[in-house]
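Quick illustration, no need to memorize.
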Amino acid sequence: MSEQSLPDAARPEYTGDPPSDHADAALPEYAERVLEVAELIPRGRVMTYGDVAEWLEEGGPRQVGRVMALYGGAVPWWRVVRADGVLLPGHELRALGHYRAEGTPLKAASRAAEGHLPRLDMRRARWDGGERAEGHT
């Protein structure tokens, strides 16, 4: 996905340095808002990329995913997930460790599932922002 699909405020300003060098730079406002939502998600619960975008009333799942990929390492990234409950490719085992430690509801892997990894039980794990939504601005 290109940065062209990010809202203007979420496009990182590259200076030629690798993206990891941007940790000290000021975050775009949209990215800050996405990361703030990620930090609100309670232990053992998840929101989809689309849920976060809907809560913010800006962007969409791809824009949220891009923000999480670029800047999400310092927040509970494993709580912002795909809508189908599949664990984040390339980070499955790290995420699974967090889910198990937090008691996040999981579904057993089917025998046909690649690597026999469980999925998130989205019906039980999904958080709608409930008790913190009233304070959302």
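The longest helix spans residues 29-40.
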